Amino acid sequence: MNKKYSWLLFDADGTILDYHAAEIFSLKAAAASFGLEVSEGVLNLYREINSGLWADLEKGRISSLVLRVKRFDTLAARLGWDISPEKFSQAYLRELGNSGFMVPGARAMLKAIPPGLHKVIITNGIKDTQYGRLKKADLMEVFEEIIISEEAGIAKPAAGFFDYTLERIGFRQIANMLVIGDSLSSDIAGGAGYGIDTCWFNPKKLENNSSVKPTYEISDWDGLFKIL
């Protein structure tokens, strides 16, 4: 075991929790409650709108309160849906908070982490939704701390998010930490910018055309244990 890393800071969506599965389930359920259907085209349009707004949130341009409604306001305008974006958002978040989909292999990986290593969730997200999903997946007791951007008041990759994280966990030796996540722009850029070693979880083996360079790159969880 590599004794260098004693604190493992895991991203949630796309790393531990399967956001895409939860997104499809929740969007279809919310739409059905309004008598609407979600086709592949609608789903792709929503993802385009949503990803753009999350990028704005990562850059500090909008808040999560704005994001949660604006994405459905924009979607409804593009599709001609006669809905209340606020009520649709409430329905969507209710369904999302009740979904516990996990990334394949993540549960087994967490169970296999050697005793003595501290596990923390660091996630950009809406507090009630993220806690609900982690609870549904029976993960609340797996992590020593759960750090959510809405509670922190700032999102990854901002340094302030990591300031808040270190304050919460009560440990400041960043040389002994490893950030593990699937997002180059959020997890890896944030960790690297703060001086923390990073591990890019890249199961689809995407090409990295960005200027962000992770310390490690893995395509499956076996790769993580080679680092630890």
Strand content: 5-15%
What is the fold-level CATH name, i.e. the topology of the largest domain? Rossmann fold
Number of domains: 2
Written as H for each helix and E for each strand, in order along the chain, the element string is EHHHHHEHEHHEHEEH
Radius of gyration, in angstroms, nearest whole number: 18 Å
Which CATH C-level class of the largest domain is it? Alpha Beta
Biggest sheet overview = 6 strands, parallel
Number of helices, where a helix is a run of at least 4 consecutive DSSP H or I residues: 10
Low-confidence stretches: none
In whole angstroms, the N-to-C terminal distance is 5 Å
Structural class: alpha/beta
Helix content: 40-55%
What's the CATH H-level homologous superfamily of the largest domain? HAD superfamily/HAD-like
* Number of DSSP E strands: 6
CATH architecture of the largest domain: 3-Layer(aba) Sandwich
Overall outline:
globular
The neighbouring-strand order within the major sheet is 3-2-1-4-5-6
Output mean pLDDT: 96
